[in-house]
Amino acid sequence: MLLLFIPTRLIVGPLGSAGAPSMLFGVASLILWLFIRLGTVRAVPGGTQPVRLALGIFFVTVGISYVLAMSGPMSPAEVSPADVALLSLASWGGTLLLTNDNIPNRSRLETLIWRICICGGLIALLGIVQVLTKQLWVDQLSIPGLTGTPGYGLNARGGRVRPSGTATHPIEYGTLITIILPLALYVGFNQTHRRFLVRWLPAAALAAVVPLTSSRSAYLGVAVGLVVCLIGWNRTRRLRVLAIIVAGVAALSVVTPGLLQSIINLFAGASNDPSIASRTDSYSLAAEFLLRKPLFGRGLGTFLPIYRIFDNQYLLLLVTVGVVGAVAFVALLLSGFISMVRLRASVRDDGTRDLALALAAAIATGAVCLFTFDAFAFPMTMGTLFLVLGLAGSLRRIERTGANFTRLL
């Protein structure tokens, strides 16, 4: 709830950019996880935890990069952003670790996924309201103890309002919507103990707001997520979903004439888009910085927006944490994705197979969207992605523990 419901602009004033409630909660989660681990004699059941191991390796590479950056000459303006970047990573890592190791059983995991989908559905409805009313609404929200940061307003593209929900930017909003969508589809198909309309409302709201985002990131993300799901679903479900998509596109053409064409134009006219040109022009500059410090980069958070906005998180990671750090981060994403693919192939229970597929789709969606913007600057996106990685690790641990218990019997 802290991650998705409290607008990103609201922070604890004295702490500055490190004062987002979700960040503070994430750091507290890391501290709590450390206390739990120190107080536990036995290892976490379920054998080796690949997601946790990959996160540890990424932490080490970022730490080395930070030490090297602080040991050399550095602009004073880069010191504070580097510290905040380290705290942000600690916060996201705390969320992942606590989720990975401390969800006790499948029932609690299902409950958490349901709550995430409810939160996603509600911010999707907020986005729809923002488009219909052409008002941000959350800019009028005030919470005692929190102060608002400036420069927070409603965006537009091609004369159409772009919703941002509680996020900083429509790109961030569209990305997290598409990350949650595969989980919402899983809930709709599998949590049949809930009423039909109740369990399908989150997925319906999330799917409805995606076309309204006017964001290439969102469109690319939803395409990737759906492709992964369609590959894994059975033929009957695949055909039903494809039929619903066709009907939805037809309805969209009738209800909002011109929106479908504007979506097509976003990709058809990409070669003439300044934002695309800015991304492609950044490659040579990134290569120049990478050649200076190829292994561990110049330090996470030290490449400031005033220097250049790459709009590609992987490119930015190559510059800031070098080849070693960038590879470690990709390995973290792959550890979650591959774990879910392998788990799905090894279990017979349809519900578990569907959940593993949904988590793999969510991770793939987030991973692809990171090519389109500097995601580490948007805590809501990264917090959600790390949470999903933690869910993947948790499902693997729970299922492996259950399998080991069955063999013992």
UniProtKB/TrEMBL annotation:
It is found in: Membrane. It is a multi-pass membrane protein. InterPro entries: O-antigen_ligase-rel_domated (IPR007016), WaaL-like (IPR051533). GO terms for molecular function: ligase activity. Residues 203-330 form the O-antigen ligase-related domain. Keywords: Ligase, Membrane, Transmembrane, Transmembrane helix. The chain crosses the membrane at residues 20-39, 51-69, 81-100, 112-132, 171-189, 196-212, 218-234, 241-264, 314-334, 355-373. One of its GO terms (cellular component) is membrane. Coiled coil: none annotated. PANTHER family: LIPOPOLYSACCHARIDE BIOSYNTHESIS PROTEIN PA4999-RELATED (PTHR37422:SF13), TEICHURONIC ACID BIOSYNTHESIS PROTEIN TUAE (PTHR37422). This is O-antigen ligase family protein.
